[in-house]
């Protein structure tokens, strides 16, 4: 049978099944208010701090429960702080918050970091909100009769 059904009693599902459902419901990005959620700020000469919050990439979530600290290379250049999803044979293995070299684009990018003379010069906020796909969160009113 070429049909898969979700969620039926007495059927075992894997994490990849749940990721498919979540990916069909949410866009990639930061979940919640952008004020502090996964906010990236300079912590020291070559370290950034990620504030607590939840991020989504392809239906997979990552939660920072307490401040997380990530080292940034001391080589001059532009770096991106991203939510990176790792897959093996198209199955999700892991999700991490990482510093990668260059100007990455996409909803999985939290910040862009500029390093000059071996220290962090500036951190640009690039977070985007994760939203529901194809629906509304507003209540719907029905009128039955007069």
Description:
This protein is mainly β and 146 residues long. The chain has one domain (15-125): Triple-stranded beta-helix (Sandwich). Helix content is 8%, strand content 44%. It has one helix at 15-25; strands spanning 29-31, 40-44, 47-50, 53-57, 60-64, 68-71, 77-88, 91-101, 109-116, 119-125. A hairpin with a 2-residue loop joins strand 9 (109-116) and strand 10 (119-125). The relative contact order is 0.21. The model is unreliable at 138-146 (pLDDT under 50).
- Under CATH, the homologous superfamily reads Phage fibre proteins
Structural class: mainly beta
- Write out the strand line-up for the largest beta sheet, numbering strands in chain order: 8-7-9-10
Unreliably modeled segments: 138-146
Range of helix content: under 10%
Order of helices and strands: HEEEEEEEEEE
Write the layout of secondary structure elements.
Blueprint: H1 15-25, E1 29-31, E2 40-44, E3 47-50, E4 53-57, E5 60-64, E6 68-71, E7 77-88, E8 91-101, E9 109-116, E10 119-125
Antiparallel strand pairs: 1-4, 2-3, 3-6, 4-5, 7-8, 7-9, 9-10
């Amino acid at each position: 049978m070429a049909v898969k059904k979700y969620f039926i009693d007495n059927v075992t599902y894997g994490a990849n099944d749940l990721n498919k459902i979540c990916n069909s419901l949410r866009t990639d990005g930061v979940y919640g208010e952008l004020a502090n959620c996964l906010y990236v700020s300079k912590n020291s000469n070559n370290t950034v701090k990620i504030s607590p919050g939840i991020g989504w990439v392809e239906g997979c979530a990552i939660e920072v429960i307490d401040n997380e600290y990530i080292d940034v290379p001391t080589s001059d250049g532009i770096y991106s702080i991203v939510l990176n999803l790792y897959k093996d044979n198209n199955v999700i293995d892991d999700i991490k918050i990482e510093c990668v070299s260059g100007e990455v684009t996409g909803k999985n990018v939290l910040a862009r970091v500029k390093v000059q003379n071996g220290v962090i010069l500036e951190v640009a906020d690039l977070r985007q909100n994760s939203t529901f796909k194809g629906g509304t969160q507003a209540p719907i009113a029905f009128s039955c009769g007069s």
